[in-house]
User: What shape does this take?
Amino acid sequence: MKSVVYLTQASDLDLWQRSGVTDVILAVKDFSRSGTLSFEEAINLNEKATALGLNVSFDWDALMEEPRFLMLSKKLKDHFPFKACRVRDAGAVVWVRENLNCDIHLLLESGHHNLKAIESWQKRLGARLKRVALSPELPQATIKLWKPQLGLEIEILGLGPLLLFHSPRPLLSTLTSDKKEEWIAEGASEESPHKGFPLRENSHGTLMYHPKDLSIIERWNEMREVGIDYVRFDHRQQKSHAIVGLLATFISHPVESTRNTLKENWDREWMRGYWDVNKSDVLFDKLKNQNLSHSSRQCAVVLEGKKDSWLAIKVTGLKLNPQSQIEVMNPQGKSKTIKLHWLKNDAFQNVEELQMGEIGFIPWISGSPSKTKISLV
Amino acid sequence: MNHFTPELLAPAGNLDKLKTAILYGADAVYCAGQDYGLRAAADNFTQEELAVGVQFAHERGSKVYVVLNGFLHDEDLAGLPKFIQFLDSIKVDAVIVSDPGVALLVKEHSTIPLHVSTQASVLNLHGVKAWSELGATRVVLGREVTVHDAGTLQRTSGIEMEMFVHGAMCMAYSGHCVISNFTQGRDSNRGGCAHSCRFSYDIKFEDGQRESSFFMSSKDLEGLSVLPRFVQEGIVSLKVEGRMKSELYAATTTRVYRQALDFWKNHGSWENAPWMKWQEEMRKLPHRDETTASLIAPAGSDSIYDEREHVDQSWAMAGVILAASSERGVMIECRHTFDQTSQLEVLTFKGDVIELPVREMCAPDFTSIEKTKPSSLIRFPWIEGLAAGQVIRLKKVRS
Ligand code: SF4
Assistant: This one.
């Protein structure tokens, strides 16, 4: 398992190389949402890093509307000396395929939670696609299952900020009169207990991160077992640059003691996210009253009732007749079965049948308020 | 003479709303089955209802697009091929996807045209190209794209462009917000968004400055005033947001946008267009403050709502006409209380609204009543111009 870090200054190069880091990412302001480098600085760092035998990738994780895309992509076409390009936007991926000769590292951290989605890129990028950076929403079991089928290098975020929200709009600068390139703040939602969301605004818009950083590095062996090839470390939001030394120590000796030291000195608490399991769809059933949801046997719904006299219904499915045996289920989930002995149309006249879409009346059934479902038995 | 007119695409959260939107003039509606769409809390459609909805639409010359726009996990895909084949069998007019894996499955299992959801945040020409490689014939652009740029993308790519024209907006790039996923355990990209962007946040800047703000809450999109630009750029389809909203919303938005688009279609000019009348009609719906967002230029700070959610509502939904004929009178499903002092208006499918005087009201069994209850049925005497499916609104009285 190899380590990938963000190279932000030339003076870190030796340290990264000595710690065993194999890959560095260069994040340029215009192309990378959290980029700090100018394009010229990146070219310079690329030369130095390459000379030390490090693999360098250029980060293009920003999303761009057409005018900006046109303007900035031209810059890359003129000169792109980097070994690989890390791309997120589908348009940027296609542009890189058509205009550059570098390796492609796909940033699949938004969606791409099924193998088929990744296959759609493999088919189109062929051998140019070398690596996929997978979503932090994927549990380890899924990655393990995919690894032998993918035949690609797999990268995950091992330690670093977890981006929750990206808006192109200027949401922080509007709250202050200060003029600067980047606004940094912390937000506390009125929804307790979520406090301390790191916030940034720059030329890419506004970014909000999780109050805790994602860390899978406590599961180093598991990462190795499931087949992770590259573990990415993102120290860039740490206040003190001294953290680089502790991170390098951990990378060279990924053991409990170096990890504990790193954790103690890391500005934010750590969390594991969905590494063990992802059950982010199990609450969905509770969002809806299942007693109101439709079933294929459902033939009508109660609109209103008059005690001991009638229920007004709307036929929504299979047709009803005066001999129908029906089951009613009220919104609380209580059900009963009865046999109809009369059926009336919307003019309150006896009829032999009510069709889908028609309004009609059936005998009163207690405990069957509006929205009660009627199904044929 | 008929002039190019964009398609009017309305939301259909359930079968009733589908019918409402079509009766009020939607060229097409979009709706979801029980799974795979992005509104886990919406009623959504059973397969039987989808079949009925498609038939209802096709009989009236309208189209039905089915959303399959979640970012799906492997296990979610298991039943999808069967569902896609079902959609093909009932002849839906397109499916709307945001996940390339779902796009491949649609192509493998059907001949249904493929539209790309705004959830995929397609923002540039190469993004359009990426999806056309997967067989997409239409792209619902990211809401960050201006109408002018959309026109250029459409002309350059030869792919149809669809844009949101009205309704609530995600503050984030669509598909790029996972707040709910990591704070509430609900996958926003599979329909579980908890709308955390609508909450108030205490913001503490680096220098210690503090602000309390609804800084992530977006005003609603208003594109009526931008219609001339959409038309000028030849944008193929204009989409109204709001599958979770009421039939009053479906009726009002569809009716007003239909009137405006028909005005253009019939005149080929916007001269003397009754903009004020259309805007006033729209204002009768509950809404947040409005913005044209990025339709003209990138959305700025004036697009932030910065207020707690509240309903600014001068009119409410009174009910919907279930049956109407000169012989049998009118039957209304009430959604609100009203009596003889109430001011009611019927939204006709075409033409002006009809004022509905509240005089003789009866219960379904013809016993006379003075006042309605929500969720009750009432009978009204027949009035010329009333028809089943029309929505009735009620002027709210401020206490
Ligand atoms: S929380 Fe707000 S910004 Fe995020 S997905 Fe939901 S609506 Fe969009």
About this structure: Residues 302 and 313 of chain A are 4 Å apart (CA to CA). Chain A has a mean pLDDT of 93. The domain at 2-162+212-284 of chain A is CATH 3.20.20.70 (TIM Barrel). Chain A has ten helices and 21 strands.
